[in-house]
Design goal:
- The chain has ten helices and six strands.
- The chain has helices at 17-22, 30-73, 104-117, 132-142, 151-175, 186-196, 201-211, 227-237, 250-266, 280-294, and strands spanning 3-5, 92-98, 122-126, 179-183, 219-224, 271-275.
- It has one domain (3-8, 15-43, 89-294): P-loop containing nucleotide triphosphate hydrolases (Rossmann fold, 3-Layer(aba) Sandwich).
- The protein starts with a strand and ends in a 12-residue tail after the last helix.
- It has a six-stranded parallel sheet with strand order 1-6-5-2-4-3, with helices on both faces.
- Helix 4 (132-142) packs antiparallel against helix 5 and helix 6 (186-196) runs antiparallel to helix 7.
- It is an alpha/beta fold.
- Mean pLDDT is 79; it is low at 7-75.
- The structure holds ligand Z5A.
- Residues 28, 100-106, 127-128, 158, 184, 188-189, 192-193, 233-234, 237, 243, 245-246, 279-280, 283 line the site of ligand Z5A.
Amino acid sequence: MPSRTQPPSNAPAPASPTAESAAKPAAKRSAKAGSAKAKAKAEPASAKAATSATAKSAKAAPMTAKTAGTAAAKPATKPASRPAAKPVPPGRFITLEGGEGAGKSTQLRRLLARLQAAGIDAVGTREPGGSTGAEIMRHLILSGAAKPLGPLAEATLFAAARADHLDATIRPALARGAWVVCDRFADSTRVYQGALGNVDPRLIAALEEVTVGETRPDLTLILDLPAEEGLARAAARSGRDADRFESEGLAFHRALREAFRALATSEPERCVLIDASFEAEAVEEAIWQAVSTRLKLPAPRRRRRS
Ligand code: Z5A
């Protein structure tokens, strides 16, 4: 049985509406991609800074040795000792999955706000997209231009976009100790192109091995909702034409739900099935329960006494 988290009926409201709106850069479509792009652009700069800092300390080493020689002649001078660099705690990787209109983007914003309020460096991103190259591929895939080529070609395109997203955004963020929350990831390929598109599971697994490798999610939250409800929510929100996948029929979306539920059952140590039929506040609370239980949240920072 999948691990299923039921939102409590008396779930409290979001921690702070201000915090939520502060996290809105992660908003669907434009803003979220923008934030991910900005992060992706920012990463090379910080990586450069880190490299040049290392180079500087390497250059300083011979000088220190020389000084140490001088210090031996004058024992009164104590060699300066540097504090050891603190090890960077590992980042955490959380993915949100589920059918159309299940509330993934809404809950991504809320989870980001909660993590940030807990003092965690948290980055929100999405698939397809989340990096400059992958956003270009998003437009290509969701326009339906690749649909005539079939699910195998689409799976390959999603994998190529994912490779860029991982290299430009996800891995650099995890490496600096940030928590990454991603709206859809490799499970969507397994379900849409694998389970529903009938692409050979060995090929899906091989693509995942090459692109994702070791960067597997620590926790996957599968938002579960009857297909009719998800489609109704999406239709109520919509101010645009249905994309490549939204335009599939009800039977497709029902099968999608079953495939996500089967995935949750098959990997209970990684996946938590969240009942997404409740109001957004209650779903947020259920997600927070799952995150706090499954992943170790850092202890709250102590205030320094002045
Ligand atoms: N795809 C694939 O085939 N293979 C892959 O490998 C990958 C993706 C990575 C991307 O679409 C498509 O690509 C997707 C799968 C495929 N296809 N579809 N369909 P997308 O990114 O444009 O859209 P999406 O991922 O499907 O998400 P969505 O339609 O935007 O829905 P959502 O993010 O889950 O829901 P939402 O935007 O947060 O909420 C929808 C509406 O419901 C909105 O008005 C909310 O205010 C409202 N809402 C949210 N929560 C609630 C609650 N709890 N109660 C009531 N109303 C709510």
